[in-house]
From TrEMBL:
Pfam families: Cupin_3. Gene3D superfamilies: Jelly Rolls (2.60.120.10). SUPFAM superfamilies: RmlC-like cupins. InterPro entries: RmlC-like_jellyroll (IPR014710), RmlC_Cupin_sf (IPR011051), UGlyAH_Cupin_dom (IPR008579). Residues 57-121 form the (S)-ureidoglycine aminohydrolase cupin domain. This is (S)-ureidoglycine aminohydrolase cupin domain-containing protein. The lineage of its organism: Bacteria, Pseudomonadati, Pseudomonadota, Gammaproteobacteria, Pseudomonadales. Signal peptide: none annotated.
């Protein structure tokens, strides 16, 4: 998997971002994980660390139609804001989602993500323990 961009945010700062503005979007290349299509994935980070968690990514994420491998190295939860996707987990379970649907996936899983139409989500990824 291609290395993902990371931005430092002061740990105690308030982060504000909009899905609807062009500023702040970063390329999120998927490299060899792409099975088909050209996802042109992008993200807009709001947070990269938490006050009580060593890793916490809070971001908007977009993708064009495509199919790609996805590893859930950390706990991940997201709400699909726009579009239609399906995730087929390594367990064989398949989750189809539309705008307004949310999911929480524990670390350690892998799967195949299919993006059927342009999609946008709001995601939170965490690892570590809170004190």
């Amino acid at each position: 998997m291609t290395a993902r961009p990371r931005l430092p945010n002061p740990i105690d700062s308030v982060a504000l971002a909009s899905l609807n503005t062009p500023d702040g979007w970063l390329a999120y290349p998927l490299g060899d994980d792409v099975i088909e299509g050209q996802p042109d994935t992008r993200m807009k980070l709001l947070r990269t660390v938490g006050v009580k968690t060593p890793h916490k990514s809070v971001a908007f994420f977009t993708s064009q139609p495509a199919k790609f491998h996805w590893r859930f190295d950390n706990d991940e939860a997201f709400v699909l804001i726009e579009g239609r996707i399906a995730i087929t987990m390594d367990t064989g379970e398949r989750f189809e989602m539309g705008a307004g649907d949310g999911v929480s996936i524990p670390a350690g899983h892998t799967g195949i993500c299919e993006v059927f139409e342009f999609s946008r989500k709001f995601t939170v990824v965490t690892s570590g323990t809170a004190d």
